[in-house]
């Protein structure tokens, strides 16, 4: 099995996961936008049996949205999003940006696009820079 590594920004939290994902979900629902502070969440789902924490997990904090099966785990040192277990405990939700290596994913899917904010539409038309513009 081909495994890849992921971590938070400061490296206090790290993990490895089997590098075979059925779908990458880009979710623009109100809750995912608020919990990420972005136009959408970018999450991969994997069986909990294909995921392992590396080292100490004492720096992980998890917030559960009351009444919903939505959570956010993050590093208490740097605040970066890290994986968390689904409500039924069978899957790990892996923030795509937390992976340190290229991902093998079969399908990319946008969900709750009807809740996407107007400022995040037509992104293909936005001026692109390879680094922070001067």
Description:
The protein has 134 residues and is mainly β. It contains one helix and eleven strands, in the order βββαββββββββ. The chain has one helix spanning 30-36, and strands at 3-7, 14-18, 21-27, 41-47, 51-54, 60-64, 71-75, 81-82, 84-85, 91-95, 105-111. A five-stranded mixed beta sheet has the order 9-10-4-3-11. A hairpin with a 6-residue loop joins strand 6 (60-64) and strand 7 (71-75). The protein is globular and about 40 Å long.
In short:
The protein has 134 residues and is mainly beta. 5% of the residues lie in helices and 40% in strands.
Cα shape: globular
How do the helices and strands follow one another from N- to C-terminus? EEEHEEEEEEEE
Mean pLDDT: 89
Give the helix level as a range of percent. Answer: under 10%
Query: What is the number of helices?
Result: 1
What structural class results from the helix and strand content?
A: mainly beta
Strands, count: 11
Main sheet? 5 strands, mixed
The end-to-end span amounts to: 44 Å
Low-confidence stretches: none
Query: β content, as a range?
Result: 35-45%
Strands in their spatial order, largest beta sheet: 9-10-4-3-11
Keywords:
134 residues, 1 helix, mainly beta, single chain
Secondary structure topology:
Layout: E1 3-7, E2 14-18, E3 21-27, H1 30-36, E4 41-47, E5 51-54, E6 60-64, E7 71-75, E8 81-82, E9 84-85, E10 91-95, E11 105-111
Parallel strand pairs: 3-11
Antiparallel strand pairs: 1-2, 2-5, 3-4, 4-10, 6-7, 7-8, 9-10
């Amino acid at each position: 099995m081909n495994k890849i590594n992921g971590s938070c920004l400061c490296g206090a939290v790290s993990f490895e996961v089997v590098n075979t994902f059925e779908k990458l979900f880009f979710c623009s629902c109100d809750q995912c936008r608020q919990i990420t502070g972005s136009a959408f969440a970018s999450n991969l789902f994997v069986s909990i049996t294909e995921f392992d924490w590396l080292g100490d997990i004492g720096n992980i904090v998890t917030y559960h949205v009351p009444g919903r099966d939505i959570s956010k785990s993050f590093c208490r040192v740097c605040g970066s999003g890290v994986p968390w277990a689904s409500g039924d405990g069978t899957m790990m939700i892996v923030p795509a940006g937390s992976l340190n290596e290229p991902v093998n994913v079969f399908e990319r899917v946008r969900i709750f696009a009807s809740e996407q904010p107007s400022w995040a539409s037509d992104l293909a038309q936005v001026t692109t820079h390879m680094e922070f513009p001067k």
